[in-house]
């Protein structure tokens, strides 16, 4: 999965897609490969619908302000990760459904943000060049 720039967010209709931040709290005992697989699945859902993943952050296991309770379970810690994506509402609905149905997810939220990225121009230019290279390889 490749991170993309704001220029990548132009849909087939020529309009920019909204920028969303997804925050997820997962079970702290979840093995690292399963955590990576969960994040990868969310990213794939976004890219399959023509969206792009612009940033992924993992904050590791963090103590929570209050316990999260589930039937026969209680969690004082959670593995927290954040993903910033540019995608349409259909893909976002699929991502939220995936997170809702995943037993390893304790809580999740999506927030719509201003569509302008606050990345340095040099980083955006590098991302755009990488996108152009990968696009030409896919076509050729």
From TrEMBL:
Coiled coil: none annotated. InterPro entries: Ribosomal_bS6, Ribosomal_bS6_sf, Ribosomal_S6_plastid/chlpt, Transl_elong_EF1B/ribsomal_bS6. It holds the Pfam family Ribosomal_S6. Signal peptide: none annotated. The keyword Electron transport does not apply. GO terms for biological process: translation. Keywords: Ribonucleoprotein, Ribosomal protein. GO terms for molecular function: small ribosomal subunit rRNA binding; structural constituent of ribosome. GO terms for cellular component: cytoplasm; ribosome. Belongs to the bacterial ribosomal protein bS6 family. This is 37S ribosomal protein MRP17, mitochondrial. It comes from Haematococcus lacustris.
């Amino acid at each position: 999965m490749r991170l993309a720039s704001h220029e990548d967010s132009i849909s087939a209709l020529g309009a920019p897609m909204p920028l969303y931040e997804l925050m997820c709290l997962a079970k702290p005992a979840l093995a690292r490969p399963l955590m990576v697989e969960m994040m990868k699945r969310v990213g794939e859902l976004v890219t399959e619908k023509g969206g792009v993943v612009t940033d992924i952050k993992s904050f590791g296991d963090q103590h929570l302000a209050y316990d999260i309770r589930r039937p026969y379970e209680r969690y004082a810690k959670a593995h927290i990760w954040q993903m910033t994506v540019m995608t349409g509402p259909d893909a976002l609905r699929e991502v939220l459904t995936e997170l809702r149905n995943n037993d390893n997810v304790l809580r999740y939220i999506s927030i719509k943000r201003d569509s302008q990225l606050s990345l340095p121009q040099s980083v955006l230019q590098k991302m755009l060049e990488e996108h152009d290279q990968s696009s030409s390889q896919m076509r050729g």
